[in-house]
Amino acid sequence: MLRDRAIESKPSTEHRTPNTENRQIASCDHLAMANGFWARVRRYYLAGLLVLAPTALTLWVAWKFFTFFDGILGGQLRARGISVFGLGFVLLNVLILLLGALAANFLGKRVFHTWDRVMHRVPLINKVYSTLRQIAEILLGSSEDGAFRRVALVEYGSPGTHMVGFVTSTAASEAQEKLGARVCHVFVPSAVNPTTGFLLVVPEEKVRYLEMTPEQAMKMIVSAGAIVPPGRQSS
């Protein structure tokens, strides 16, 4: 009797096996659909961030820039009862244009040259002033032959290894007399933090000038090489 019951129960077990497999397959399909759904959500979210983040950060920086410079003269104007939004920013730009016009003539050049010498001789202040002046010359300078206006590659360390730097001077110097060859003074900024770096005195024939602008070189240095300007052929 027990044997007959065992034999009768066996087909019923085999009969339930396909249903169990179907449920497992359905569960796997459901899990795969859920994973695919969240993968699409993650992809769409990252795509949205890539679109929104640069625009939002640009607007935020522009707003901070505007409010900062507007507050330089805007605070004084509001203290005198003149409250016009953006007037401080406009007046500051007019003042900068007037200072530029003054610095461009002969008398203004002598005045600002004297001021520059004074600022370089004041202890502590000269460190901050010289650093900010270097950055301003890199970012705002217009003369291609001026300091920090030419980007170059110089070999440093092991043969075949080069560093990106700014040619600050090619004028005759004591180093040129000692080396017996025409030399270039090249400032090589530190990656990520370009306010520090070191100076190289390199023979002119070993300096390879690049066509990238100082602004492009600064972006490459600050980003540690993540942002590389395209070459002439690739552009």
Please provide a written account of the structure:
This protein has 235 residues and is of the alpha+beta class. It has helices at residues 2-79, 87-104, 106-121, 125-140, 174-179, 214-222, and strands at 150-155, 162-169, 183-189, 197-203, 208-209. Strand 1 and strand 2 form a beta hairpin.
Q: Mean pLDDT, as a whole number?
A: 77
Order of helices and strands: HHHHEEHEEEH
What Rg, in angstroms, do the CA atoms define? 34 Å
Which segments are poorly predicted (pLDDT under 50) over 5 or more consecutive residues?
A: 1-16
Terminus-to-terminus distance: 89 Å
- Strand element count: 5
- Percentage beta strand: 5-15%
- The global form is flat
Tally the helices: what do you get?
A: 6
Structural class designation: alpha+beta
Q: Please give the order of strands in the largest beta sheet.
A: 4-3-2-1-5
DSSP helix fraction: 55-70%
Q: Give a short account of the largest sheet.
A: 5 strands, antiparallel
Give a quick summary of the entry.
With 235 residues, the protein is of the alpha+beta class. It has helices spanning 2-79, 87-104, 106-121, 125-140, 174-179, 214-222, and strands at 150-155, 162-169, 183-189, 197-203, 208-209. The protein starts with a helix and ends in a 13-residue tail after the last helix.
